[in-house]
Amino acid sequence: MFSAAGHTFPHPDGISRRSFLTAGVSGLTGLGLADLLRAEQATGIQTSSKAVINIHLDGGPSQLDTIDPKPAAPSEFRGEFHPIQTTLPGVQVSELMPRVASLADQFVFIRSLVGSIGRHHAFQCQSGFDEKSLEAFGGRPAMGCVVSRLLGSPGDVTPAFVDLMQGRPLVRNSARPGFLGPSFQPFRPDMSKRFPRELEAGMKNELARLGDDQTVSLKLNSALSHSRLDDRRTLLAGLDQIKRDVDASGMMNAMDRFQQQAVGILTSGEFANAMDLDREDPDTLARYTGPASNRGTQSTTSEGTDSIQKFLLARRLVEAGVRCVSVSISDFDTHSSNFDRLRHLMPIVDHGLHALVTDLQERGMLDDVTVVAWGEFGRTPRINSKGGGRDHWPRVGPALLAGGGMKTGQVIGATDRIAGAVVSRPVHYKDIVSTLYRNLGLDARKITVDDPQGRPQYLLDEGEPLPEV
Question: What is the pTM of this model?
Answer without folding.
Answer: 0.85
